């Protein structure tokens, strides 16, 4: 660890390329904090958006017309408006309307900026997931659902145990794409001062005056994060494959 | 006698096809606008009863709408320019991806992956901070205003996405076309420009329009780096009206509505084209 720091220090002295994150403990801590926040945001929003997406897809197939209409409006609205404006709308618009709570003698908003970022990003990605899951569900043959019904499954149980596992396998490539997009969209949380990677890196380059070097670090970070996510999803895809089924 | 034959007898997974949401009750853009207008109206009448002296949220929006809509038009201008730049560059990059020269194809593959996998906002920062604010060439100084740099920043991811679309479309043309062209002694360049690309335009149009909708929605990111487009103006209008917290929701709601009214018809049209051009 020390050797890496020394190497980058020498690089700075000899070439003027100031990768301060790698030898300055303070900058490194800040960068690591940002990375942790990005990972936290990504994992929570991916999980939440999957759950909301699956629930939405279930509701879209429900007999109630009102429920279907509500889900469709949700999908259409969230897909066709900019995610940044959605975040602002939630954080500023709805955040200021909620009552504040008293904590240790200070009035703080009910939901913090991190929580609002998670909520709005999850809803944004969930709108896409609903469509992806629905298309997967449509690919599951009607006869399979009927067989489940014949075996006495309720609608909900058949959905959880039979339809969804098959649908997920079919729509994984599309889902993969959307989750990569979601990971990239977490940078928007920067706009409401969530200290994620972009925010931390911007702070570092404003203080250390090394915009170019930090930009390289930033792009490399997101490249690696996206690469890891894609690799994980491909592994999952392979692990879930049913031999001889589908394509 | 015609009998209703079951389409799929066996439990075989059907081909996966991402179909756009069809609204069971269609909301046309116009009626959506009217609905939103009514909602804002209802909200503002509730407000008017409590404090008659201050402007209601609706009045604020009406008062400032010329300015805000001008900001929105600026967003659209940026998106159109970025799309133009990105499409031209993306076409070149896409053809480079298909090139026979291994080195060129590999290099352009790396460029494509790089710009496709970086977040839009990071690329925007990349261009904003690393491109100088003016360029001096042959003793003439060309200033580069913020919004032009932002346009370039949006054009980069567009370029990579368009390149992928071009590559996918050309790859999807049956290889017999290549062989037929070869047997008619077309050169590779002639085959590409006279035979492949004209056939591909139909396939490329729906994904290309999808990319455009994405760019149109991404232009608001320019407000983060200080271009005075709609979202920046919205924040300024909010400050000008005394920064009342209850104004946030209607003002940002108005921005959402503008983008929705612009992007939803594009989306519907894309879906229609997709259905019509579906490769069977």
TrEMBL record, chain A:
The keyword tRNA processing does not apply. It is found in: Cell inner membrane; Cell membrane. One of its GO terms (biological process) is amino acid transport. GO terms for cellular component: ATP-binding cassette (ABC) transporter complex. Residues 35-230 form the ABC transmembrane type-1 domain. One of its GO terms (molecular function) is transmembrane transporter activity. It comes from the Bacteria. It is a multi-pass membrane protein. The chain crosses the membrane at residues 37-58, 70-94, 114-137, 211-232. Its main location: membrane. Gene3D superfamilies: MetI-like. InterPro entries: AA_ABC_transptr_permease_3TM, ArtM/GltK/GlnP/TcyL/YhdX-like, MetI-like, MetI-like_sf. The keyword Nucleotide-binding does not apply. Pfam families: BPD_transp_1. Keywords: Amino-acid transport, Cell membrane, Membrane, Transmembrane, Transmembrane helix, Transport. Belongs to the binding-protein-dependent transport system permease family. HisMQ subfamily. NCBIfam families: HEQRo_perm_3TM. PANTHER family: AMINO-ACID ABC TRANSPORTER PERMEASE PROTEIN YHDX-RELATED (PTHR30614:SF37), MEMBRANE COMPONENT OF AMINO ACID ABC TRANSPORTER (PTHR30614). This is Amino acid ABC transporter permease. It comes from Bradyrhizobium niftali. The lineage of its organism: Bacteria, Pseudomonadati, Pseudomonadota, Alphaproteobacteria, Hyphomicrobiales.
């Amino acid at each position: 660890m020390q050797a890496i720091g020394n190497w980058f220090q020498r690089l700075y002295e000899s070439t003027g390329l100031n990768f301060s994150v790698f030898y300055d403990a303070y900058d490194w801590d800040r960068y690591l904090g940002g990375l942790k926040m990005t990972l936290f945001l990504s994992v929570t929003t991916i999980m939440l958006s999957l759950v909301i997406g699956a629930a939405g897809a279930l509701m879209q197939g429900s007999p109630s017309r009102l429920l279907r209409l509500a889900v469709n409006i949700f999908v259409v609205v969230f897909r066709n408006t900019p995610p940044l404006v959605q975040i602002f709308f939630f954080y500023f618009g709805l955040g200021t309307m909620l009552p504040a709570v008293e904590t240790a003698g200070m009035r703080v908003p009910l939901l913090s900026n991190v929580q609002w970022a998670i909520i709005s990003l999850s809803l944004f990605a969930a709108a896409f997931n609903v469509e992806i899951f629905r298309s997967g569900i449509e690919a599951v043959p009607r006869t399979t659902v009927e067989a489940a019904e014949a075996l006495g499954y309720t609608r909900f149980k058949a959905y959880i145990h039979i339809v969804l596992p098959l649908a997920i396998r079919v729509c994984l490539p599309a889902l993969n794409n959307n989750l990569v997009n979601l990971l990239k969209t977490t940078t928007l949380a920067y706009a409401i001062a969530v200290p994620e990677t972009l925010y931390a890196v911007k702070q570092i380059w404003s203080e250390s005056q090394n915009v170019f070097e930090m930009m390289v670090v930033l792009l490399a970070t997101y490249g690696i994060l996206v690469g890891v996510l894609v690799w994980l999803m491909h592994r999952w895809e392979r692990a879930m494959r049913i031999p001889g089924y589908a394509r | 006698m015609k009998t209703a034959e079951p389409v799929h007898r066996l439990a075989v997974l059907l081909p996966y096809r991402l179909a756009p949401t069809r609204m069971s009750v269609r909301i046309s853009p116009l009626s959506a606008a009217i609905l939103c207008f009514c909602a804002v109206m209802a909200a503002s009448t509730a407000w008017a009863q409590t404090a008659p002296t201050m402007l209601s949220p609706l009045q604020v929006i009406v008062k400032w709408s010329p300015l805000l809509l001008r900001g929105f038009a600026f967003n659209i201008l940026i998106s159109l320019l970025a799309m133009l730049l990105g499409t031209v560059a993306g076409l070149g990059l896409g053809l480079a991806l298909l090139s026979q020269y291994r080195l060129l194809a590999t290099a352009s593959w790396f460029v494509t992956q790089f710009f496709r996998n970086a977040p839009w906002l990071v690329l925007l920062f990349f261009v904003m901070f690393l491109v100088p604010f003016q360029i001096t060439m042959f003793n003439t100084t060309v200033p580069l205003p913020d919004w032009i740099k932002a346009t370039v920043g949006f054009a980069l991811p567009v370029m990579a996405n368009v390149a992928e679309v071009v590559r996918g479309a050309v790859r999807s043309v049956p290889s017999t076309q290549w062989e037929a062209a070869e047997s008619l002694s077309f050169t590779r360049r002639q085959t590409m420009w006279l035979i492949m690309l004209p056939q591909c335009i139909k396939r490329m149009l729906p994904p290309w329009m999808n990319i455009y909708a994405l760019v149109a929605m991404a232009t608001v990111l320019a407000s983060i780096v200080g271009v005075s487009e709609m979202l920046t103006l919205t924040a300024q209008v909010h400050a000008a009206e005394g920064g009342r917290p209850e104004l946030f929701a209607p003002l940002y709601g108005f921005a959402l509505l503008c983008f929705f009214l612009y992007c939803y018809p594009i989306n519907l049209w894309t879906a229609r084209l997709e259905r019509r051009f579906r490769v069977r």
